[in-house]
Amino acid sequence: xxxxxxxxxAHKTQEIREIxxxxxxxxxxxxxxxxxxxxxxxxxxxxxxxxxxxxxSRHVPGLVLSDDSGLEVDALGGAPGVWSSSYxxxxxxxxxxxxxLMDEMAGKDDRSARFRCTMVxxxxxxxxxxxxxxxxxxxxxxxxxxxxxxxxxxFAPEGHDRTFAELGAEVKNxxxxxxxxxxxxxxxxxxRA
Length: 193
Ligand code: ITT
What we know:
Low-confidence stretches: none
Cofactor: Mg(2+)
Active site: 68 (proton acceptor)
Bound molecules: inosine 5'-triphosphate
Distance between the termini: 11 Å
Shape: globular
CATH class: Alpha Beta
Order of helices and strands: EHEHEHEEEHHH
Mean pLDDT: 97
Largest sheet: 6 strands, mixed
Helix content: 25-40%
Number of helices: 6
Strand content: 15-25%
CATH architecture: Alpha-Beta Complex
Binding site for Mg(2+): 39, 68
Oligomer: single chain
Structural class: alpha/beta
Radius of gyration: 16 Å
Protein name: dITP/XTP pyrophosphatase
């Protein structure tokens, strides 16, 4: 079966493809010309994931899956949260995000944080279900590693002394917010089949 990811972030699509293996043919909105841009006007991951899944599934046949995700840092009152992709002031997962996070966290003792991911599955403009995953961890003072994307060089998951960017795709996918949310999606799809 084909699964269209309602994202323009190719890193998300890549990770979802790695996790699903050959169970699904994974595409995303970059494979479909002329889809409308979806405005993320929600204030929660679920609201934004729902907006993206409904909007894209109105234009694309079959199953559509959205991913709204972000980093919640306790010492920053939960920021950047749903605004993770533009925290540094520029749209679209910019390197300035990490510079800002390092600045804001300088001198902070409480390093605890988590990544959250909410996925919404939709078909023909109707929501079929929503699924979430979380990974606890902590924020490093400097960036380490070259793998992954976004905040990965600054985030070490619980139980590891290295960042997601150092641990590599296989370890990241096995315990990430996205991997956990996607496992719930797959369980739901398989129970329906
Ligand atoms: P789409 O809306 O098109 O899916 P986006 O990247 O703007 O793409 P979000 O609005 O969900 O998506 O923002 C997610 C941001 O959270 C992302 O840009 C990163 O800054 C951060 N993020 C999410 N998952 C991450 C991960 O696995 N590793 C590092 N950073 C992540």
